[in-house]
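Let us begin with a simple case.
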Amino acid sequence: MRFATVALIVAVALPFPFPVVAQARFEIAVPAAMRATPVTGRMYVFVTRHDDVEPRLQVRHESDCTSFFGVDVTQLAAGTPGVVGGSTLGYPVTSLKDIPAGDYYVQGLLNVYSEFRRADGHTLWLHDDQWEGQQFNKSPGNLVSAVRKVHLDPAKGDTIRLELTRVLPPIDLPPDSKWVKHIKIQSKILTAWWGRPIYLGATVLLPRGYETDTARRYPTVYEQGHFNLRPPFGFSTDSSSETPEQRAARLARSAREPGFEFYSAWSSANFPRMIAVTFQHPTPYFDDSYAVNSAN
């Protein structure tokens, strides 16, 4: 009887083996030919059913955007993969496990981080903005894979391997014109604080007659918003008609008139003469910051 009791206790105490649940996963690696030294950053995979543009370019703030998942990598050696699996957080789908089985277009991306040795003694690894406004899916120097069409079934233990074989190119900067000027300077104060070169910029919209009426002083309107290189107030000399998609996008941002309509008014003889300015002040944390909560 005593032996039977002990046997029962042991049987209850020992854990029953649970079956291992197979899960799909992505392994994303940087080949040595692309980068021989270890890299720190955040590795992403984008999963979409649409192939009209690259999956990385289908990401936006809305909750119906393309699903993507990200994982931090630290000093990742060439050829060693970053792994995105069922426990990796994503948006708008929380987990890879929640994606329905089917055919998808997938793409990997590495948002490359740089070391910032700040003046306060802290050392941080963050993305160094490349004048794209902290848009990780477009930032020059980031690494991306080719787009692949795969059959994805999260319930199966398939491993999808991607190699990051392309470097995103520099941003195409808009040229200056009679009406619009672009300014970019290195900030000595911010550079000293962050321990790396930090830049500030502005896009300036000039009034009619500015180049000839050199003695005149003008009132100035400052437009504060998120990072962009476009002229203030949507100003545009492009007379092309808006597509329905462009009109919808404009009205989603604001109720103002089309850019060419504003240009026609701005350049007319009766429009009040003034200067308009927008700012570029990206930080390693976000696409803008320095103009906020500042006495200046």
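The second case is a distinct protein. As before, the sequence precedes its structure tokens.
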Amino acid sequence: MVKVYAHDNSETWVLIHAKVQGEPEHAFAERMYTYQYRLRDRYGVDVVSLAVLADTSPSFRPVAYHYARWGCELTFTFPTAKLIDWEARWEELEGSRNVFALVVMAQIQAKRLKDGNARKAFKVALIRRLYERGYRREQILRLFTVIDWMIQLPQGLEREFLQAVYAIEEEKHMPYINTAERLGMEKGRLEGLEQGLEQGLEQGLEQGLEQGRLEAKRETARNLIARTEMDDHTIAEIAGLAMDDVAQLRAEHSH
């Protein structure tokens, strides 16, 4: 939920619903409408519905839901972004300094590339771009996490990928990402047994993802506490947190 200002300088609250759809779905437009009216009915504010179509089907392009019966008619339209449309503008993505350009590239190739070695080579090249574009440290850390999640590799290639990341870090003298810690294992374990490597990767990755999801929920709750007059119960439902967690965040905000 964000606060915006109209042309007459009056302020209003808008709830933005962004849906990322990974595969074609016959009833997707109807589901977008269902989300829209339920959110508007529950919170009583304007709802802007946006769809990001991350699939590879050229024909899947829903933009509206419509029904009509006995003189009653409704049409609900929503803007969409089709990621594969950017394949024809690949050079533009490569040259863009917008952080979302790398995310779009990662998502497209995650869908297109099936060979493990090809996925690893592209993933390493994308990570290298993070260091070469002059992004802030926080941006690099967040983008690394997103790209690592999008382009997953067979376990047998993870070790080679990690070694490539370390080489880039040393080359650029920019040790922003301690990949070993991120994956819940010591850097020296890369020289150890393959079995130990795989176990550390799996456990550390799961812990990292879970911590990231929890922090995102807390940040949502903090924003709602600071910018709205919603009660703790409503905020807990929106953010997906327990009431005690929301109460603690509100107490921290008061101080």
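Residues 1-84 form one domain. Confidence is low (pLDDT under 50) at residues 184-193.
Keep these points in mind for the review questions at the end of the chapter.
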